[in-house]
């Protein structure tokens, strides 16, 4: 075995990594996965310092089926908006997570970049299977477009951003936006969950993973049901299934070397580039899934944060 944790990560936060690398819930047990996953997200959120100077406004987005989807608009207090805006989609393996659990993380992005962010509390699987989650996210994108000028946002400078499952949903939202002629300035995909076929463990990665293959099977099965793994799995739900990458928004993608999403993310970046879509890709050596939250103060965590801020400010 040639892989190992980045020495700085191992030295500084190894106990936290060990705490999060627990025995995974059995494949298909989404209830246990949701319970344990939300507890871990709450632990990570508690470690984020309190964020000041950011205004929050709770709004409601109308989904295509008439459901009222909660969303929250974040703006830096007392600062003229730069004209850009972001739709943020939280992570959680398609079955867990919430807008509230990501509240401090999103507020920190706004405080540091100055860019307004709309965070959407999309409905989760399996209670709401594809296409509900991605359609909720797309509805939030269209809401942001419709209300952009009132918040000092240029509709042509709106990006979609998400981490993990949220990164997959951001990619799916970008696909819908292209197909429905809604402008997206950039897709910012943080270790995105893209491929429903990724359920066979890689023995080189298993000792280091913080998101297990069993959990991945559970998440994709909850989202896609009987479509998981089939040739006709929908690209808007599992973006790695996309055939035509032309015309998609420019992409920023990052992933850790020890993340089970590594290969699918690299391949997604390759296919974007092959279709003429400008793409920036970062693969962080010795880093597992969620490395930026687990080791925010490490060199890799600081570098990834700086790169994200550079991208946000460039919108």
Structural key phrases:
single chain, 315 residues, alpha/beta, Rossmann fold, eight-stranded mixed sheet, 9 helices, 8 strands, globular
Please describe the topology of this protein.
Elements: H1 7-20, H2 30-46, E1 54-62, E2 68-76, E3 85-89, H3 103-113, E4 117-120, H4 132-147, E5 158-163, H5 165-179, E6 187-190, H6 213-224, E7 251-256, H7 262-274, E8 279-284, H8 291-294, H9 299-313
Parallel strand pairs: 3-4, 3-5, 5-6, 6-7, 7-8
Antiparallel strand pairs: 1-2, 2-4
Helix pairs in contact: 4-5
The gross shape turns out to be: globular
CATH architecture: 3-Layer(aba) Sandwich
The topology string of helices and strands comes to HHEEEHEHEHEHEHEHH
Oligomer: single chain
What's the story with the biggest beta sheet? 8 strands, mixed
Strands ordered across the widest β-sheet = 1-2-4-3-5-6-7-8
In helices, the fraction of residues equals 25-40%
Identify the CATH homologous superfamily.
Answer: Alpha/Beta hydrolase fold, catalytic domain
Compute the average pLDDT: 95
């Amino acid at each position: 075995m040639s892989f190992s944790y980045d020495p700085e990560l191992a030295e500084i936060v190894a106990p936290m990594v060990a705490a999060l690398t627990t025995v995974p819930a059995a494949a298909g047990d989404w209830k246990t996965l949701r319970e344990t996953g939300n507890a871990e997200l709450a632990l990570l959120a508690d470690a984020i310092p309190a964020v000041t100077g950011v205004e929050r406004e709770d709004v409601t987005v109308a989904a295509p089926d008439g459901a009222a989807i909660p969303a929250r608009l974040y703006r830096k207090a007392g600062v003229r908006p730069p004209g850009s805006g972001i739709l943020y989609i939280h992570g959680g393996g398609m079955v867990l997570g919430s807008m509230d659990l990501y509240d401090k993380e999103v507020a920190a992005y706004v405080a540091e970049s100055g860019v307004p962010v709309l965070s959407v509390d999309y409905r989760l699987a399996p209670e709401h299977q594809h296409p509900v989650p991605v359609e909720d996210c797309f509805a939030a994108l269209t809401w942001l477009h419709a209300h952009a000028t009132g918040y000092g946002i240029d509709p042509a400078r709106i990006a979609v951003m998400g981490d993990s499952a949220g990164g997959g949903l951001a990619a799916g939202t970008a696909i819908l936006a292209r197909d429905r002629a809604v402008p997206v300035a950039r897709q910012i995909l943080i270790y995105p969950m893209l491929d429903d076929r990724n359920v066979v463990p890689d023995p080189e990665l298993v000792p280091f993973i913080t998101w297990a293959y069993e959990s991945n099977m559970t998440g994709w099965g909850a989202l896609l049901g009987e479509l998981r793994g089939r040739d006709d799995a929908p690209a808007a739900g599992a973006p790695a299934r996309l055939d035509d990458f032309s015309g998609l928004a420019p992409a920023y993608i990052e992933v850790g070397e020890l993340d089970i999403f590594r290969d699918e993310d690299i391949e997604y970046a390759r296919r974007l580039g092959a279709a003429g879509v400008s793409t920036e890709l970062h693969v962080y050596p010795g880093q597992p899934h969620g490395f930026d939250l687990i080791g925010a103060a490490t060199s890799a965590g600081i570098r990834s944060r700086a790169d994200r801020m550079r991208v946000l400010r460039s919108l």
